[in-house]
Design goal:
The protein is mostly beta strands and about 130 residues long. The protein contains no helices and twelve strands. The protein has strands spanning about 1-5, 10-15, 20-25, 30-40, 40-50, 65, 70, 75-80, 80-85, 95, 100-105, 115-120. The strands form two sheets. Strands 3, 4, 5, 6, 7, 8, 10 and 11 form an eight-stranded antiparallel β-sheet that branches. It has a four-stranded antiparallel β-sheet with strand order 2-1-12-9, with no helix packed on it. Strand 4 and strand 5 (about 40-50) form a beta hairpin. It is globular and about 40 Å long. The N and C termini lie close together (about 10 Å). The model has no long low-confidence stretch (mean pLDDT about 90).
Length: about 130
């Protein structure tokens, strides 16, 4: 399985069955992590972990405080995930396959706008 990424500058495909996106909230300066998996033609949000709460980042109903982070399991399916990337904030981190996390810019260039992620056929995996 693979994840296809696209901006107005480039497209890329990354072999991955599961991955985590992490970032620091631009106002609250709190780390946010979302664990995703690829299932058929969808991306499934398995787990959310937030190391605090505040402006627009309230824990979901049923969230549990575990090891200093609020955690919940939405298990929602998404055909496309749209990430807004800005030169004024740190980039998202991509974590997968037990490798160290790296900036999303290591996988695909940002134009300062929206980056789309979606499931794509394994044959499209270029990395």
């Amino acid at each position: 399985m693979a994840v296809c990424l696209a901006t107005s500058l480039a497209t890329a495909a990354v072999a991955a069955n599961a991955f985590t996106l992490a970032w620091t909230h631009s106002i609250e300066r709190v780390r946010w992590e979302e664990a995703w998996r690829v299932e058929g033609e969808a991306l499934v949000l398995e787990r959310v972990r937030v190391r605090g709460h505040g402006a627009g980042m309230e824990p979901a109903a049923g969230a549990v405080l575990r090891d200093g982070a609020w955690e919940w399991h939405p298990r929602t399916r998404h055909a496309v995930l749209r990430l807004t990337r800005s030169a004024y904030t740190a980039d998202y981190e991509w974590c997968a396959d037990g490798e160290p996390c790296r900036p999303l810019s290591a996988l695909i260039a940002s134009d300062g706008g929206v980056t789309e992620l979606r499931a794509c056929p394994a044959g499209d995996a270029a990395r």
